[in-house]
Design brief:
This protein is mostly helical. It contains five helices and no strands. This is Breast carcinoma amplified sequence 2.
């Protein structure tokens, strides 16, 4: 059950829009009534927002939002980087020298070659996982095209059924839109028809309030005169 209920009593087609001064006064009154906890503390019915734990996926979204790509050869904003599914060049096997190295320069060169080989192997391993999944899924999908009941004809029948559902949904949306427009038109007509009566009632209410105030003022004047006469009589 919602803890807040929206209620609108404004006649949108008759009432004039509020002025900026009126809106400022309303905002000031609301701010004066609100406690500090009302804007800083969540309502008990609102669940606490949990922090996401999919940091890798979030980083990918941030990368796409920033217009960056994993491959420098692809333009930004083109979606999935298909180079992840390209065939890989398997790195050659690293061979240790048969004889121990005699100089320090040869040792440093061997260490650099080994580091480069490890980096290449790591990159190959990371790219091999999505490539294997992609190729396996593609092989399964292609094999289903020739396997009953997942062949071409059932696929076309399913597409035809989905197309019929889409058309029915579009027709329902169009009908709902037409009904909404009809309700709005009827609402406008009713408010326009009631405008003279509402204006007359508002004018009568204003005149009644003004006369009531005038009567109260006159009564206070008479009361003051009576008190004055009593004071003069007492003297």
């Amino acid at each position: 059950m919602p803890f807040m209920h929206e209620s609108s009593e404004a006649l949108t087609y008759i009432d004039p829009p509020p002025t900026s001064t009126s809106l400022a006064q309303i905002d000031a009154l609301i701010a004066a009534e609100l406690a500090s906890t009302d804007t800083n503390t969540l309502h008990p019915s609102i669940p606490t927002l949990t922090s996401p734990s999919f940091t890798s996926l979030q980083s990918q979204h941030e990368r796409l939002a920033a217009g960056e790509t994993l491959s420098s050869s692809r333009p930004a904003g083109t979606g999935i980087d298909t180079s992840l599914f390209d065939l890989l060049d398997i790195p050659d096997e690293f061979e240790e020298p048969a004889q121990p190295l005699s100089t320090e320069e040869e040792s440093q060169e061997l260490s650099s070659r080994k580091t480069a080989f490890l980096n290449q192997t790591t990159d190959y391993t990371l790219r091999a996982a999505p490539l294997h999944t992609y190729l396996l899924t593609r092989q399964t999908t292609l094999s289903l095209l020739s396997t009953p009941p997942f062949g071409k004809n059932p696929w076309l029948v399913a597409n035809h059924a989905l197309e019929a559902q889409v058309k029915a949904t579009e027709a329902a949306v169009s009908e709902m839109k037409r009904e909404t427009e009809e309700v709005e038109r009827r609402r406008r007509e009713l408010q326009e028809e009631a405008r003279p009566e509402l204006e007359e009632l508002e004018g009568a209410w204003r005149r009644g309030v003004r006369r009531g105030v005038e009567v109260e003022v006159a009564a206070e004047g008479v009361r003051g005169e009576i008190l004055g006469m009593r004071r003069r009589g007492a003297v």
